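chain below, 290 aa
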Amino acid sequence: MFNLSTISPFPAGHKASGVALLPVQKITGDAAPTRVIDPVAVEEPLEISLEYGPAAARCQQNISVTMRTPGQDTDLAIGFLFTEGILPDVSALASVTTAENTIKLSLRENITPDINRLQRHFYTSSSCGVCGKSSIESLRTVITPGRPEKETQPPVEAQVLYGLPPMLRQEQSIFETTGGLHAAALFNRSGLILSLREDIGRHNAVDKLIGHALQDNLLPLTNAILLLSGRACFELIQKAAMAGIKIIAAIGPPSSLAVQMAEESDITLIGFLRDQRFNIYSGAHRIRVK
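prediction:
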């Protein structure tokens, strides 16, 4: 386990909010440095473990250590195990046990997880959600194929998309304080915000969002729009596909592999959504421009 006692100088009460208050020197032009207290986003490890098997022979296995911003750890762990294809649904859970920087998810006795997936070594950093995975093929979480769903919703108006980034920014409370967090949010197709999560890791923010929706029995999120505060990478598209999301918009650019994954999963992928403009990389039929 990690011991953060020597590197956690924030006062009591700030850790839970995801904000640390640290002494800094501010430099402005040629003026003398000034010493102030500055809010900084908290980054700490979370060790996720899984307990499973019959009552007489329960097994416990460490699954991942992820660097995250504390808060909504249960959402994060459930969302992570679901989007990795290890947790089939929330009904498979018997209990969740949390302690400082650790969380254990216990499965019901009749649920047998995919051991091959459990054997992979997971170390997820805050900058990259795929660290520790040995190949592109191993990244492709099993997404149950099904018949293409008939589109029952009208296309989303471009004007609705233009309004999403300002709403996201307005709701980012920790970013407003620190300027140092990613965010992911779900909107309905009219542009109303449904939920939002912030985290030092963009993949954690999405896992928290999906984990919360899974616990509320809202999956599949077929009629929701996922908005990402930064770039769209492969793993975020994979996670969204697991949750049934069909429209993803990112304020930043997508990667080539993200576009490929979106095309394979019949997902509408939008990038550079800012300043009344955006690019459509796949699934243009779901967007009405004029």
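Confidence is low (pLDDT under 50) at residues 1-16, 121-127. The first helix runs from residue 73 to 83.
thats it, cya
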